[in-house]
Write a structure and sequence with these properties.
Layout (H helix, E strand, L loop, with lengths): L2 E4 L14 E4 L2 E4 L17 H18 L7 E8 L5 H11 L6 E6 L9 E8 L3
Parallel strand pairs: 4-5
Antiparallel strand pairs: 1-2, 2-3, 3-6, 4-6
Helix pairs in contact: 1-2
Length: 128
């Protein structure tokens, strides 16, 4: 199977030597996303919920660039700086994944890029 990098100006540019996402067969893997504004590159979010929302908007843009959507996400991994924010993140996450929620892992980490409080990556199926 061929590996195809997927990049879009509607999601933040990579800040290192990696692709925004990679398509392999009918699967799409996003790189971890944080709350960057794709137009300015500025970090967005006054609180954890605004960060989570911008992060999920970035994921949504990547999925669209790969011809798939949130409904086709099969696995999500959520990295958070403080497990005490789990409930607040879930409130926003639940607004994006309303039906047939994907499998998910959530782990607390010591530090995230640009000192973000949340980072999310997903794996999605690309419908044929």
């Amino acid at each position: 199977m061929k590996k195809e990098p997927i990049n879009t100006p509607n999601a933040p540019a990579a800040i290192g030597p990696y692709s925004q996402g990679v398509k392999v067969g009918n699967l799409f893997f996003t790189s971890g996303q944080v709350a960057f504004d794709p137009k300015t590159g500025d970090f967005m979010g006054k609180d954890i919920q605004e960060e989570a929302k911008q992060t999920l908007e970035n994921i949504k843009a990547l999925l669209e660039a790969a011809n798939t959507s949130l409904e086709n996400v099969v696995k999500a991994t959520v990295f958070i700086k403080d497990m005490n924010d789990f409930g607040k993140i879930n409130e926003i996450y639940g607004q994006y994944f309303t039906e047939n929620q994907p499998a998910r892992s959530c782990v607390e980490v010591a530090r995230l890029p640009k000192d973000a409080n949340v980072e999310i990556e997903v794996i999605a199926v690309i419908p044929e």
